Backbone:
């Protein structure tokens, strides 16, 4: 069903959603699907830190297509390379795809801090993109989970070029509906920090591991033996394998020790939901699943919060999915049939075509 008080729509019927997407992703102006990739461009931030950024542009015969294009930006703590495979889908629709590693991750300078730098860094990246000769000045953002959080954090800084967002399963209140749920710490984030937060992922890991490569590998393996540390809680500074990467160990200790909803969790980058009055008033398509632990955050805080305070269209799509599982018809052992599968690209392109290009596609 759909309703539009103050241009707000709620999309909950999968049948209606799938039928709509077939219409919304119809004929488009044809652009070359050849991709010109420029990797590891170091984009400067206001404090001099440079962030590693990959740029994918439309091209013909290895030469960049002339003209200016809207940009789709992904800011991620994970490897940038996973976005390369689908870059041709963006450029063939006349978009430039920009994928950037957040601070301290995968070639980016600086120290990684949990969302704390993302409002300012997102703003500076947006300004840099808008100044490029291939940019038409319009930017949309997409990405899931942590990448959804970087989108909302960026929107708090209100970059002029930011025009639309498609955040998937985005946590915006880590202290109450993300890493902690009303004070209770989710131990899966202990795992996350010991694996995804493994210091080997940091560009500075040779400094953390001054020994030879076998020593580095041994310490990296030790960092993944997190289960034995769970049995020895509480953890102490300098007593985990993450001691080689102080910012990761510090984050782990802070999220485990701050049980109350205190100043740590109220940081503007970590608790976007508490600062929605500062969020840029732009169209946002929120996507989550009924079996995602962040469903409440996405539906009740992100979508409902922005719908109440902003004039721009806010849309919510929910399905029988786990965290980021909209491409699967299963949630655990429960099967929901092929009609439950929704393409992330279809959602992204329909939204971006409408709000970055002005295509009247029914959105």
Residues:
């Amino acid at each position: 069903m759909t309703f539009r008080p103050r241009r707000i729509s709620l999309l909950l019927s999968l049948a209606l959603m799938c039928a709509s997407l077939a219409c919304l992703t119809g004929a488009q102006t044809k652009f070359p699907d050849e991709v010109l990739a420029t990797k590891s461009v170091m984009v400067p931030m206001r404090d001099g830190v440079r962030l590693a950024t990959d740029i994918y542009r439309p091209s013909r015969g290895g030469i960049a297509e002339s003209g200016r294009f809207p940009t789709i930006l992904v800011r991620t703590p994970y490897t940038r390379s996973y976005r390369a495979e689908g870059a041709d889908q963006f450029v063939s629709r006349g978009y430039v795809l920009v994928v950037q590693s957040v601070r301290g991750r995968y070639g980016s300078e600086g120290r990684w801090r949990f969302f704390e730098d993302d409002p300012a860094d997102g703003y500076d990246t947006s300004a840099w993109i808008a100044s490029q000769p291939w940019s038409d000045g319009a930017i949309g953002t997409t990405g899931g989970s942590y990448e959804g959080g970087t989108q909302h954090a960026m929107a708090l800084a209100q970059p002029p070029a930011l025009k639309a967002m498609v955040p998937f399963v985005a946590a915006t209140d880590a202290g109450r509906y993300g890493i902690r749920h009303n004070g209770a710490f989710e131990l899966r984030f202990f795992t996350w920090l010991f694996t995804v937060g493994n210091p080997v992922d940091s560009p500075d890991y040779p400094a953390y591991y001054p020994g030879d490569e076998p020593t580095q590998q041994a310490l990296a393996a030790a960092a993944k033996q997190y289960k034995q540390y769970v049995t020895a809680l509480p953890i102490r500074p300098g007593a985990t394998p993450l001691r080689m990467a102080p910012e990761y160990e510090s984050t782990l200790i802070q999220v485990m020790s701050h049980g109350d909803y205190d100043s740590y969790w109220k940081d503007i980058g970590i608790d976007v939901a508490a600062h929605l009055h500062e969020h840029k008033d732009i169209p946002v398509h929120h996507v989550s699943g009924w079996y995602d632990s962040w469903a409440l955050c996405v539906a009740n805080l992100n979508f409902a919060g922005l719908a109440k305070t902003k004039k721009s269209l806010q849309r919510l799509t929910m399905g029988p999915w786990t965290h980021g599982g909209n491409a699967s018809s299963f949630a655990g052992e429960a099967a929901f049939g092929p009609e439950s599968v929704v393409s992330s690209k279809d959602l992204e392109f329909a939204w971006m075509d409408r709000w970055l290009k002005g295509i009247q596609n029914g959105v």
